Fold Thioredoxin reductase.
Amino acid sequence: MANKDRYDVVVIGAGPGGMTAAMYASRANLSVLMLDRGIYGGNLNNTATIENYTGFKSIKGPELAQQMYDGSIQFGAEYAYGTVTNVEVNADGTKTVSTDMDEQFVAKAIVIATGSEQRHLGVPGEEEFSGRGVSYCAVCDGAFFKDKPLIVVGGGDSAVEEGMYLANLASQVTVLVRSDKLRAQPMLQDEAMKNDKMKFIFNTSVTEIVGNDTKVTGVKTHNNQTGEDGTMDADGIFIYVGNVPMTKQFASLGILDDAGWVKTDNTMKTAVPGIFAVGDVRETPLRQIATAVGDGSIAGQQVYQYIQSLEK
Ligand code: NAP
């Protein structure tokens, strides 16, 4: 292992929640390291347009990510690449954070802000055609399907919002919804229903993704009401069927609920002193940019108070 760098706080994950926690903690004069497995911004980088974050009538996800990042490092917080593989609580209460880059960092406190990743459908063909027509990111891959027919799977905010983004590019977007209704916010539903290029098919599950030697050609479907099986042609399949928490490396800390989300109180403290969690990774009733930012500000301030209490 490389040398063990020491920080007051290591923030694991640089999405809106993590970046805000880093900003608040560094503005309180703490030494802060933000670690992320990729580019800062988290799921903002996969979001075309944001219309429900206060202060912006409309802003592109990557643009908001850049603005948040610029703000988050202005008081001295550092940022580094690295996937966190383990967190250990030491006998003196400090925490050792290990990464896949063969590095270790020791911190008085950590903030878990790893967020969530998109759930996979788990049907045959999904992994095989991933990157060859199966996608989880309209912003990244939509442009490959100009004037082509696409299928979106799911019925939540993401499926409807990203479906509308794709409809600007594709010849047609068919949204396959497994139940008889959408879960998306009513305003998004209304907008999508008015879009001529969008079509919704309810009570329909995808049972297999099919293709030829090079790419996806369509899906096999099952009607959950009539029991009928069918097929549908498309050049691309975009999957938006919810999220799963990115918390495997924290399982041994005893801070997760049965589904893997991190349990905290309303000051973002977990059951382990000095370990906080913010944003989508938390067990929380609402997962939004605004809620993640709110969590981050509380955690940044609570981390400061925790470190002060150690010094008394
Ligand atoms: P979500 O709200 O959990 O919705 C998941 C959708 O996928 C539901 O329609 C669900 O159907 C469906 N689904 C789940 N498993 C499926 C399967 N195996 N086959 C077919 N369909 C399946 O997920 P999300 O839309 O990704 O949103 C995640 C969170 O981010 C939410 O809290 C959401 O509000 C938030 N978000 C907000 C915005 C915004 O505010 N603009 C934008 C995007 C996301 P059932 O209804 O039948 O379970």
The pocket of NAP is lined by residues 52, 121, 153-159, 161, 178-179, 183, 205, 240-243, 287-288 (CB under 6 Å). The domain at 119-242 is CATH 3.50.50.60 (FAD/NAD(P)-binding domain).
